[in-house]
Amino acid sequence: MLHPRPHPVRRELQGGMVLRTLEAEAELSGPCAVNAAVHGPEVGALLRSLALHHPDMDPRDVIWVEDQGEVVSTVCGIPWGLYLSGVQLSALELGLVATLERWRGRGFQRAMVGFFRERIQERGAHLSIIQGIPGFYRQFGYTYVLPLEGGLILEHRQLPATEHGLRVRKATPGDIPALAALHQGLTRELELHATRSEEVWSYLLEHAVETGTEGEFWVCERADAAAGYMFFPKHHFGDELVVSEAVATGTDTALAMLSHAVALSRERGTPGVRLSLHDGSTISQLARAGGTRHGPLRVAGVVPRHTEAPRRAAASAHRPTARVGMGRPHWRDCV
């Protein structure tokens, strides 16, 4: 979010170019336009939404290079909270990486990544993560660590409509306490998962419309109490209806949510449902008998040299087949 005193950065680069960070809301138009041109309008909108509404954003996390006032290249530091083997970690995602085509190949990204590394240390973050072009970010010290998408694909015929007696409806901001409690309770069994404050929940439900993280949260109720929820992202790979996050407190809840997902898929004309969830979830276990696996993408991560916390956490993870829940970014963790 924009602070009253953002302490903006301005650094001269070679060739008269300038590296800058955000100072005022009016300056967002340039970085947003670059991301919209490179990635699509929803990503430009995402940058604006993050900068103005995400509770953990700092204006200095919005970074760009400009030429005589024209923004030509951007990166953005997106904050995460992570939990690894009993250790609470903070992470900064290198995201919204974009350079206008005629300005590529001039080293702007390398200059901004150098400043981004400074931001990692200023924030006291334990590690950085990225979701991007396979292989490209190895030059900046990143390596592949976790599967990102993929999952089980269900065709409509594999899960006929069933009577379950539970109510499934779209979530509202009034559901945030219940959603947060479900999320926290179910992530305790995971070796690695993202943490999420109620303020971040509010951001997701109220400020993600028309952005790259837009989607629908649906709540499953048993006797007027929330028994589970699921999230359908609007933007994803593939043509299926994707479930990128789901929590079910019982088999009946999982069946009700699967049935609802298939019904939505039929209604919206998609070829099936893809469960981009971890293999140990109740919903994945129920669906596995009839589903087929889709090849995963990858998320890359790097541990900065200045901290030993992630290494200590990794050393304490003694289960060889530990389950993880991260999911699609920037904000989703599959449960």
Automatic annotation (TrEMBL):
Name assigned to this protein: N-acetyltransferase domain-containing protein
Matches recorded under PROSITE patterns: GNAT
Biased composition (Low complexity): 312-323
Gene3D superfamilies xref list: 3.40.630.30
Single biological process term from Gene Ontology: aminoglycoside antibiotic catabolic process
InterPro entries attached to this UniProt entry: Acetyltransferase_Eis (IPR051554), Acyl_CoA_acyltransferase (IPR016181), GNAT_dom (IPR000182)
Any GO molecular function: aminoglycoside N-acetyltransferase activity
Sequence ranges assigned to domain N-acetyltransferase in this UniProt record: 17-160
Chain spans, region Disordered: 307-335
